[in-house]
Amino acid sequence: MANESFAAAKVNLTLHVTGRRADGYHLLDSLVVFAGTGDRIRVSESESLGLTITGPEGAGLDAGADNLVLRAARAFEVERGAAIELDKQLPVASGIGGGSADAAATLSALARLWNLPLPAPDAVLALGADVPVCLAGRPARMRGIGERLDPVGGLPEGLALVLVNPRVAVPTPAVFAALERRDNPPITEIPKGCDATDFALWLAVQRNDLEAPAIAIAPVIAEVLAALRACGGLLSRMSGSGATCFGLFADLAAATRAARRISIEKPGWWTRAAPVLSAPAA
Ligand SMILES: C[C@@](CO)(OP(=O)(O)O)[C@H](O)COP(=O)(O)OP(=O)(O)OC[C@H]1O[C@@H](n2ccc(N)nc2=O)[C@H](O)[C@@H]1O
Ligand SMILES: Nc1ncnc2c1ncn2[C@@H]1O[C@H](COP(=O)(O)OP(=O)(O)O)[C@@H](O)[C@H]1O
């Protein structure tokens, strides 16, 4: 029997770099949400383990053993087969965690197919710092390098995002290496039960500490932010280590209008409007 999992785009609404571990990894404080746009993983029974990749963003992505989908399958540490299909819709290496979302969706789908428990938390984290939060699939405050998760409730209903990627790959290690400070303050208490405007006012006094170093590496990110701001949303910021930026909107209709405008102005950019998910999508 086949089954499918949705691999939603991860968006870091805040991303504070608060310290650095002895191994060089940076400590983060991030409010993470998921957007209703993403990849799809489909798994079905097979004697051997194999991956096929389809979809508009699949070209150039290697389906070999290093693909995060196959690494996730091996994390179960069992000699089982499965035919895995990845429908790749999210740009690769773009700050919205596509690879991590694929790994998490593979873990969920194979746990169902093989009727096995998920791998241990350390094995999940070893696949990538964003894999635990992608497995949770709902709004969370993420700390440490990604292992410390606290669910976040009470965000305004109906929020939507426009995600824009200028088709420039920004290497994550280079962005962290270009940080000027690594001891920034954490985020302040996340408001609960407020409306979209007040939530955006809170977000505006938080940051993505990786935004300035990413812009220094890829100045086009500043153009993306300017294009989003020109659409009049509640807030615009970069996600993760870039280059994808998001615009936050009070509802999906406003986000869809903004996405249409940016798609017309910049047809070469990857632009999507999507709701903020309050719970994992099927
Ligand atoms: C920055 C974040 C925020 O959600 O998102 P993305 O930009 O990947 O979407 C993540 O922490 C990305 O975590 P992860 O996906 O595991 O990062 P990788 O690409 O494997 O990391 C590549 C390299 O970046 C540096 N790195 C990464 C994470 C971290 N907390 N500190 C670091 O210093 C390390 O040099 C690491 O070897
Ligand atoms: N299934 C996958 N999808 C995307 N990237 C993958 C996948 N498997 C391995 N990778 C590798 O992981 C790296 C990070 O990709 P991705 O998770 O898309 O980045 P980001 O977290 O910045 O959005 C890329 O360099 C890519 O080559």
UniProtKB/TrEMBL annotation:
Keywords of the record: ATP-binding, Isoprene biosynthesis, Kinase, Nucleotide-binding, Transferase
InterPro entries on file: GHMP_kinase_C_dom (IPR013750), GHMP_kinase_C_sf (IPR036554), GHMP_kinase_N_dom (IPR006204), IspE (IPR004424), Ribosomal_Su5_D2-typ_SF (IPR020568), Ribsml_uS5_D2-typ_fold_subgr (IPR014721)
One GO molecular-function entry: 4-(cytidine 5'-diphospho)-2-C-methyl-D-erythritol kinase activity
Catalytic activity: 4-CDP-2-C-methyl-D-erythritol + ATP = 4-CDP-2-C-methyl-D-erythritol 2-phosphate + ADP + H(+)
Domain spans labelled GHMP kinase C-terminal: 207-263
Residues given in the record as ATP binding sites: P91, V92, A93, S94, G95, I96, G97, G98, G99, S100, A101
Pathway annotation: Isoprenoid biosynthesis; isopentenyl diphosphate biosynthesis via DXP pathway; isopentenyl diphosphate from 1-deoxy-D-xylulose 5-phosphate: step 3/6
SUPFAM superfamilies from the UniProt entry: GHMP Kinase, C-terminal domain, Ribosomal protein S5 domain 2-like
EC number(s) per entry: 2.7.1.148
Signal listed as a keyword: no
Residues in GHMP kinase N-terminal domain copies: 67-136
Statement: the UniProt record of this protein carries the keyword rRNA-binding: no
Residues of the active site: K10, D130
Its biological purpose: Catalyzes the phosphorylation of the position 2 hydroxy group of 4-diphosphocytidyl-2C-methyl-D-erythritol.
NCBIfam families: ispE, PRK14608.1
Protein family according to the UniProt entry: Belongs to the GHMP kinase family. IspE subfamily.
PANTHER family: 4-DIPHOSPHOCYTIDYL-2-C-METHYL-D-ERYTHRITOL KINASE, CHLOROPLASTIC
Full protein name: 4-diphosphocytidyl-2-C-methyl-D-erythritol kinase
Species per Swiss-Prot/TrEMBL record: Albidovulum salinarum
